[in-house]
Amino acid sequence: MAEVAKKTKRSVLKREKRDAKKEAAKNGPSVAKLKNVPTSPRKMRLIADLIRGERVNKALNILKYEPKVGAPKLEKLLLSAISGWTAKHTDLKLEEADLYVKDIFVDGGRILKRLRPAPQGRAHRVRKRSNHVTLIVDSFKKSGAEVVTTETETKE
């Protein structure tokens, strides 16, 4: 008789896929999130654009001396992402890792709507905006193509 191949359950396949995702996340880039920051997303994006793609040390220096309102909060978030990366990669040293800000994006958060008195008994609506920031820190050593592009930029 021909042996019938045993079919695995869908739930088992789902569990294996989920566990594989978790294993990949343990060794991948570090993600840090900051939610409900009470500044408008537009103002925060101006600061986020300054550090996108920069090396971690340079990004920390930029944020330290940036006079805008959201810079100290982004600096703290970047330090949190760095410590998350070091917690994931205990075998690597931070100095040798050559970390950079892989991606940073700012999304709009909730809007608090308030009323402000206006002339002739009217009221104007004031929207107090907030934002959510997501910061991804990774090492240059994982992808060789990015190292080549940064070396050519420094030579020019």
Would you write up a description of this structure?
This protein is α+β, with helices and mostly antiparallel strands. It has a single domain (30-155), classed as Ribosomal protein L22/L17 (Ribosomal Protein L22, Chain A). Helix content is 46%, strand content 25%. The chain is built from six helices and five strands, in the order αβααααββββα. The strands form two sheets. A three-stranded antiparallel sheet has the order 1-5-2. The longest helix is centred in the N-terminal third of the chain and has 18 residues, at 10-27. Belongs to the universal ribosomal protein uL22 family. Residues 1-38 are annotated as: Disordered. Residues 13-25 have a biased composition (Basic and acidic residues). This is Large ribosomal subunit protein uL22. Part of the 50S ribosomal subunit.
